[in-house]
Amino acid sequence: MSITIHIKEDLEKWLRQRAEAEGYHLDDYIVKMLEAQAQHKAGLEYKERELELLQKINLGLPADIWVRYAELKEKRQFETLLPDEWTELIDITDRIEVANAQRMPYLIELARLRQISLDQLIQQLDIQN
Is the pTM of this model over 0.85? Predict the structure, then answer.
């Protein structure tokens, strides 16, 4: 495929000088530059998507909910949970399960993006089950 572009004289001169200095034919040098730019752009898009996915994965329950969850689990362990606390523990557990289910598609996409298994990603991110 061929493309014709019109550029300013000073840019053409600069491109010819750079191509010659690096030992390339002008056309090959321009293609090399375009490929490098495309790879750079793809790398930036990759990083942006990775950051977006990590932000979605890290959305979760507020810290006070986790504190309460730990308190209730401890009371359950010592068999001192009251009936209303059982209900609260079940509610928090359900919320945790929903949050985990909601982030799963993002984890899967991030694993694919990084070209690793989901288990490897979970280990990399130190996600506790």
Answer: no
